[in-house]
Amino acid sequence: MIILDNQDRRPIYEQLKSRITELVLMEVYPPDMQLPSVRSLARELGVNPNTVQKAYQELERDKVIYTVSGKGSFISANPLAKERRRKEALERLEEAVKSCRRIGIPGDEIQQKVTETVNQQGEGEPK
After folding, report:
1. Per-residue buried b or exposed e for 7-25, using 16+ beta carbons within 10 Å of the residue's own CB
2. Helix H segments across the chain?
3. Residues sharing a CB contact under 8 Å with residue 41, sequence separation 6 or more, in sequence order
4. How many Cβ atoms are within 10 Å of 78's Cβ, its own excluded?
5. Rounded Cα gap, residues 25 and 126, in angstroms
6. Final residue of a structural domain among 61, 77, 93
7. Average of pLDDT values for 79-95?
8. Cα separation of the two ends of the chain
9. What is the value of pTM for the model shown?
10. Most distant CA pair in the chain: distance in Å?
11. Structural domain of residue 35, as residue ranges?
12. Residue 72: left if φ>0, alpha if ψ -120 to 50, beta else—which one?
């Protein structure tokens, strides 16, 4: 489920954080599901355990996961986390549109690209 991209310029922990967040938002990882231990996930992905630990810490800070001492890390049932992510994604989209407009891309071309992207993703995905 978790695949890291060596071509991605983002640090590994950010890729990991982003992928886990996506899986939570798509409800592939349901609330209260236990995540793999830091060591086992690090071994599985071939990364340093500190990298996984940093991703888990950031996910916990963002209330995507919670940790139970001695038990592990679990997916949060907090519906506010999903709404906050939705709001952040829409804000990033708005900034991207503004950036396109600043460099002179016409509005209809931006709309066409957004529509194409939405259609490529398919209708079966969570909204």
Report:
1. eeeeebbebbbebbbebbb
2. 12-25, 38-45, 49-61, 79-102, 107-121
3. 2, 35, 52
4. 15
5. 8
6. 77
7. 82
8. 20
9. 0.65
10. 55
11. 12-77
12. left
